[in-house]
Amino acid sequence: MGKITIAIDGYSSTGKSTIAKKLAKALDYIYVDTGAMYRAVTLYALRNNYVGTTEDIPALIQDLPNLALKFVPNKSLGMSEMHLNGENVEREIRAMEVSRNVSRVSTIPEVRHKLVEMQQNMAGKEGLVMDGRDIGTVVFPNAELKIYMTASPNARATRRYKELLDKGEQVSFEEVLENVQKRDFIDSTREISPLRKADDAIAFDNSDMGLEEQFERVYDFALRII
Ligand code: C5P
């Protein structure tokens, strides 16, 4: 079949990006982490006090045309990093403060409109693996392969907690679990493009699966189509 588009959606911290990245590398495809884009807009909104302790969504919407988001490849790390108006914000967008506010920002229709359009423009002749919440339902409803990843809230919070500790963030497990559950609730109940499984997506529960086994399975799904 040749190069295809692969959409990977699911709740937060299901390990979507780890698998998506590995898959893109194995297939020599482009990988796009759409969560990084929503996180970058949220960081911008936090820095300008448009969300957080005070809220000014109309001001954020007004600023959207001036917001430049770019994935810049970092050859030594073998990955792309998110740049916001020319500044590398890859580390900052993963902080807890951004996680606390990102689902709120992601409910804003104007934000979604801008980011979905950018994501759709990333499809080209090259193969694409994109992960997020609405890739198989809204961004690429015709993607050749759609995977919907799930895992228990506990398994997900445990993974996320370890990740944050490794990065030196001071958080408690309870706080991480609460954030994961709160984001899942907002993401799956919001009015515009809520997180849901596309009818033609393969449901994939990885609560009790190691990374290698997950990868082998997903890689196999892709090879069957390509
Ligand atoms: O994937 P990640 O957990 O980094 O995404 C952060 C947040 O961005 C999600 O909780 C969700 O609110 C939002 N998001 C979204 N649509 C996407 C990707 C992420 O609404 N396609």
Automatic annotation (TrEMBL):
* Pfam families hit by this protein: Cytidylate_kin
Gene3D superfamilies (alphabetical): P-loop containing nucleotide triphosphate hydrolases (3.40.50.300)
**Binding-site residues for ATP, renumbered to this chain:** G10, Y11, S12, S13, T14, G15, K16, S17, T18
Q: Which CDD domains match?
A: CMPK
**Which positions fall inside the Cytidylate kinase domain?**
6-220
Q: Which domain of life is it from?
A: Bacteria
What molecular functions are annotated in GO for this chain? kinase activity
Q: Which reaction does it catalyse?
A: dCMP + ATP = dCDP + ADP; CMP + ATP = CDP + ADP
List the SUPFAM superfamilies hit by this protein, alphabetically. P-loop containing nucleoside triphosphate hydrolases
Subcellular location per the Swiss-Prot or TrEMBL entry: Cytoplasm
Asked if the Swiss-Prot or TrEMBL record annotates the protein with the keyword Manganese, the reply is no
Q: What class of enzyme is it?
A: transferase
Task: List the EC numbers from the record.
Answer: 2.7.4.25
Matches recorded under InterPro entries:
Cytidylate_kin, Cytidylate_kinase_dom, P-loop_NTPase
For this UniProt record, the keywords arranged alphabetically read as follows: ATP-binding, Cytoplasm, Kinase, Nucleotide-binding, Transferase
Task: Please tell me whether the keyword Nucleotide-binding is annotated for this protein.
Answer: yes
In the UniProt record, the signal sequence range is: none
Q: Which NCBIfam families match?
A: cmk (TIGR00017)
Assigned protein family? Belongs to the cytidylate kinase family. Type 1 subfamily.
List the protein's name. Answer: Cytidylate kinase
Source organism (scientific name): Flagellimonas spongiicola
UniProt gene name? cmk
